[in-house]
Amino acid sequence: MTDAVTSPVAAPTDRERSVCDRVDSTAIVALTTALVEAPSVNPGGTEGDAVAVLRAAAERVGATVEIREAAPGRPNLVATLPGGDGPGLMFLGHSDVVPPGPGWTGDPFAARVADGRIIGRGSTDMKGGLAAIVAAMDALRGETLSGPLQLVCTVDEEEHGIGVRDLVGSPSSYPLHPGGYAGCVVAEPTAMETVIACRGASYIEIEIRGRAAHSGRPADGRNAIDAAAKVIDIIRADHGAMQADLDPLLGAGTWNVGTITGGQGISAVAPNCAIGIDRRLMPDEDAEQIAADLRAEVRRRGIDTDGIEVDVAVTMSMPGFRTAPDNGFVRAAVDAVTAVGATTSIGGWTAACDGGFVSRDLGVDCIVLGPGDINGQAHQPDESVAVDDLVTAARAYAVLALRLLG
Predict the structure, then answer these.
(1) Check: CATH 3.40.50.980 for 200-318?
(2) pTM of the model
(3) Per-position DSSP letters for 305-338, written without gaps between them
(4) Domains of the chain, residue spans
């Protein structure tokens, strides 16, 4: 995260103070705990129990809830707090969590509170954020809003984005607001920093086929592992070139060779090799074009000739986004955070999230703004989030809604 602009203090109005006073910390802890204790580990397609908990909570605070399965047994949720016909405000989150892994000092799905923190898998990424959104809805209940407040909760964010792809691919199947949106807040854990730019991500898989031969006569075969090494040289050079021209908020795109398999034995020329690559994307980059450029460079260097075949395929891609720092939605978010007594700054995020799809495909300005620490807590043993941070987030979300829709 690179800090850019720090907002001056924006004093809350009497109405905003009244709404903030309605944020119920006990309810936030209870809902975060209930969500953590409804394991929704991905992979596995087990989000349904957590979504059921979230649905019940949203309905209790007066929201209308609709469910649509993005895939069998994998429900997306849209909860709507009613408002007028003007632009609405969208909050975006996800119901899935990564596997707990080793190293926990207690049951990762038996949430516990210690030293003011809720401990459990998903507490910071991002079930605490979901609870903060619902708490903001509760605090706003009965307020007159010019447009609706909507919570969109998707499945499969941690893997392939099945949920958000269904949302943007079939928007008419969801109760999205016909009057559009003043903006979208992705409630991922940013420690309440206001993220206006986010990298995307892609998986590129390369299959290389050669010809087996006895290792004593390697010239009789065509070694796919040797060809893979040449492809990796291209990737390494491109990675280095990108690091020489850094964006002030996002740095640069990156290549990472995550997996490589190949060969049939030490005594044979390798007839095959497969490489799995993570390519992080800048907001203006397209994974298919990157793959096409890589294929072209492979051909230019003659790697895929003389009995060697190279196939390059994009198997996953999620876009990044960038919202202008002087955008009114961004300024309102920064002011809302400072109005509730917290500090924030405008920055970028090198991680990826579902917000890129909402920005690109639905045309909604996005920021990432949420409680918790993605680097210090998310995807780690004894993941936790501070209760005070959840309360701050709920208050900031409520104030932002009042300033945009009030």
Answers:
(1) no
(2) 0.92
(3) -TT-EEEEEEEEEE--EE--TT-HHHHHHHHHHH
(4) 14-198+320-405, 200-318
